[in-house]
């Protein structure tokens, strides 16, 4: 089993890339998040999962250990295969997915590629407790005890609650949250965009 690949990014496609490891080119299927972090001609390290079927052997790669670990949890759910798991990771950030599952946000989960109501319910039912065991994920108790900032209501309030459950202080995100909330984003989209902005500053 291949645990990770370190090599030069030869080419990047919509849902995959070629990694050149000492002259051997590996096609690795990647999420949108990982794709955005890669640069052709630059070295990259991808944590990998090998899918073996009768008709194909495929490698799935992830730019962070967190993304890999969540992928393994996702595909442990009945009806969620590697392609759907990768689609989920492309539709929302790792932290956003964790929060949606822990809070039972079916409306958020059903907006992800390949996820209907029944699949969303299975994700929550089978992973809610497991997600809480992630050292980098917010615990269920933390989510339950997180107070929404007095100044935030509606979509902003839900996003603020999720961010504080992830360990962010209000002072860290309030300006970004206010700036990005144009009244048109839903909770999942606004949370993803705020996390993206916060990530740039870390």
TrEMBL record:
Residues 153-202 are annotated as: Domain III. InterPro entries: DNA_helicase_Holl-junc_RuvA_I, Hlx-hairpin-Hlx_DNA-bd_motif, NA-bd_OB-fold, RuvA, RuvA_2-like, RuvA_C. Its main location: cytoplasm. It is found in: Cytoplasm. GO terms for biological process: DNA recombination; DNA repair. NCBIfam families: ruvA. Has three domains with a flexible linker between the domains II and III and assumes an 'L' shape. Domain III is highly mobile and contacts RuvB. This is Holliday junction branch migration complex subunit RuvA.
């Amino acid at each position: 089993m291949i645990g990770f690949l370190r090599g030069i990014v030869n080419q990047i496609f919509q849902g995959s890339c070629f990694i050149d490891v000492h002259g051997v080119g590996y096609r690795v299927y990647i999420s949108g998040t990982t794709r955005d972090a890669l640069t052709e001609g630059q070295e990259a390290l991808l944590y990998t999962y090998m899918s073996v079927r009768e008709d194909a052997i495929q490698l799935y790669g992830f730019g962070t250990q967190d993304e890999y670990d969540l992928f393994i949890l996702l595909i442990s759910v009945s009806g969620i295969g590697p392609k759907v798991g990768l689609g989920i990771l492309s539709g929302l950030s790792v932290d956003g997915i964790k929060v949606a599952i822990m809070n039972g946000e079916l409306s958020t989960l059903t907006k992800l590629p390949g996820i209907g109501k029944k699949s969303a319910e299975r994700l929550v039912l089978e992973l809610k407790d497991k997600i809480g065991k992630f050292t980098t994920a917010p615990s269920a108790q933390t989510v339950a005890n997180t107070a929404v900032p007095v100044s935030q209501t509606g979509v902003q309030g839900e996003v603020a609650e999720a961010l504080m459950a992830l360990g962010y202080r209000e002072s860290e995100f309030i300006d970004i949250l206010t700036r990005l909330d144009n009244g048109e984003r839903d909770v999942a989209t606004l949370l993803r965009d705020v996390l993206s902005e916060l990530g740039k500053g870390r």
